């Protein structure tokens, strides 16, 4: 199939910020889990 360059470009622009937000959001979930799971 064809690669959508616009999508790739958007992902590259927003990738770092999205990853950071996901880590911050997931960190809150991880903190709830028992420490042995970390």
UniProtKB/TrEMBL annotation:
GO terms for molecular function: hydrolase activity. Keywords: Hydrolase. It comes from the Bacteria. This is Amidohydrolase. It comes from Salmonella enterica.
């Amino acid at each position: 199939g064809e690669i959508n360059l616009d999508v790739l470009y958007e992902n590259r622009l927003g990738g770092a910020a999205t990853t950071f937000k996901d880590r911050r959001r997931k960190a809150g979930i991880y903190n709830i889990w028992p420490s042995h799971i970390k």
